[in-house]
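Repro:
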Amino acid sequence: MNGSSALQALQGKRIGILGYGLNNANLVLWLLRQGLSLTVRDKEATAQEKFKQEHPEFAEVVWEIMPDITENLNTFDVVFRSPGMPYFQPAFEKAVQAGITVTSQTKLFFQLAPCEIIGVTGSKGKGTTSTLIANILTTGYTRGKTYLAGNIGLDPFSFIDDLNEEDLVVLELSSFQLTDLHMSPQVAVMLHVTPEHLDHHGDFAKYREAKRQLVAHQRPSDLAIINAEYPDMGYYLSSANGHVLRYTRKTPQREAAWVEHLDTKEVVFVQSGNSLESIDITGRQLKGEHNVENIVPAILVGLHHRVSPTIIQQEVVAFKGLDHRLSLVGTYNGVSFYDDGIATTPESAIAALEAFPGQRIHLLIGGKSGGQDYTLLVHAALERAVSVSFIPGSDTPALEKLFKKVAKSRTDCECLLLAGAKEPIMETILSGIHPHLQPGDIVILSPAAKSFDHFKDYKERSAKFIHAVTDRYGSQS
């Protein structure tokens, strides 16, 4: 369905918007400007009040404030769900059976966009990879404008009317957005996929299937850039219908990219067709071996769009990463503090531990689990960390119990397990760690769990950590 037919299909329909939050706010305005009639449902009356204050010109919008916004959907012909609402739920299944179209902001954007979409997904690293891709293309792609959108950057319906055929949209996509997409971008970047959001999807099979939509509907002329470092990624390699470029950390192969360490240099090699390209990324500021898996696909996207290797190299080396993603808070008396607060999976916390080989690490961990298995992380932390401090949360007691059980079974374990953090949480944790600090040590907030039990979101959790660190050590050098 092209853009004009997608819009035409909405004309004269009873349209319901389920949830007015950040993901649907710009969509509502765009649909209204197309002359469509809408009913907006939300749980909070404040959403309606805010809309009326900010957009008095759209007084005709019907609002329904109700505790269950999926109730009685048969009053609509089309409903737009918010990404956080599971697609596979009885209310939507019943609606579809009744002939109601259940769609989303993301799906409509794919139908309307006149230009190429570069979709990026994976369990971790989406924001980092998407931003680096956008940086490379903004500097080196000259045929059109580059937009960064999705869960990071702009809302796509804030600029959709400005797009032309030569533009590029880098779109970070979560499993929530991909679940019912049934469309794939012209360039798909598939980072490593590990169990996450199982409380939302129900099981890993459904989560994997949601991610698979990124590559499953590509045409042969499209490009799929897929992390092939891990055996389980074969699931996506076998699903891709576009031309596939694999990438790994170290394994040379055809139609692929990899990294080699040559003396003091770190070089990315790209083999495609009859060509072999190399880009020196020595001195990159994006720390950690795991970030190679974010850097390499960004390089591949840049080369695909004919950005010069020189520009790509400059952008990669200059890129410092994003806030709350293993970002340096400061170094005080020789001890470095890192905020990796967005790390909400065991795999991302393991990556943080591996980012500082040979250094003593103090790890802050805990919160609300999404159904993940923490066994590998516990073993990695007991091997690499000199202390583990537990952040309070609904699943922290079980995590702490697992740490103690595994530590008891290991005769070589010298890791300190520091429990009992109370309000103020981060200040209390730092007080517990302080007597064990030595120059050269690393302190990392990498919770491997969600934050909602004691913090509004991961940003607030990180902000509390940063404030506690700077308040305690900021006057020291």
